[in-house]
Task: structure prediction
Amino acid sequence: MAEIYTGIKFNYKSLGKTIIKSELLSELKNWCAFFNEKNLAPPYLGGSSGNLSFRIKPGTINFIITASHTALRENMPDSDFTKIVSYDENKNLITGKGTKEPSSESIMHHIIYKYKPEINAVFHGHSPEILKFADQLKIPVTKKEFEYGTIKLAKEALKLLKTHNFIILKNHGFISLGKTVQEAGNLTINFLNNCKSINNE
Ligand SMILES: [Zn+2]
Result:
């Protein structure tokens, strides 16, 4: 899929450039560094990388997500994260707070938190290894391909995420869900380790 990264594909309304603070943020940052270290979010489509988020409070759809066009790495500053407070599908409008625009896949994260109230963490990466071994690992793969960052892609993903917590977006990347940040991270590690054992067989 030769799709070029062209930035976010939703309208964005900023409620202010406040730097986001949250107790869980340092935990998320550790997983961002892990994603970078394990090549789970290599430079993609000429600029984007993976995007990780967590729900701020159960019962709400407010979440904190990596900012758009932000490489995952060690010691990311708080300014690399944006808080999302709403998404209006009719206007294709995301509203948030932070110093940068939120990840281009913010719609996908939003729709997952909306329809899966038990899920509190969403990790999305682009591991060539995991994609390669999807069949052998029996990971469900979306049927159709859609452009990154669109509501169509988000809805296609949701079809499988209703019954699975780890899926592949066809020819694109993976999504890992958890009740906690730790759980979404551990699920990713499991599949990555399984790839490594196939490689070593
Ligand atoms: Zn992606």
Notes: The mean pLDDT is 93. The chain has five helices and eight strands.
